[in-house]
């Protein structure tokens, strides 16, 4: 689904998952680099909380920082959305609501875990669930320095 921009050109939509983590900031920067120049794309920064007031305040600040980061990186058309619920479900719901074909997320979010040397150590549960469900294209931003290295 696309929408008409004020200039009458078609606009694609991209949802960016925001949780305040370094990988989420990298995801936003990568989204701005790939999709952000010109008015061809609407970048939608989305945060999801469990519904607690303190969590909502922190995520609102993360959304504001992300929107500034996107603007500083040259993204011209952005908006934001705060939601409550399961992160993977809500990112997919936001993508459907905004008509986004792509979701951009960090490989691992704020709730990082340490696992063995299998692939689960390289991506977080939200990223894995989005990839497993295959309902939208998913662009994964990865910070190599934040990934645990297998024991030698």
UniProtKB/TrEMBL annotation:
It holds the Pfam family Usp. Residues 13-141 form the UspA domain. Coiled coil: none annotated. This is Universal stress protein.
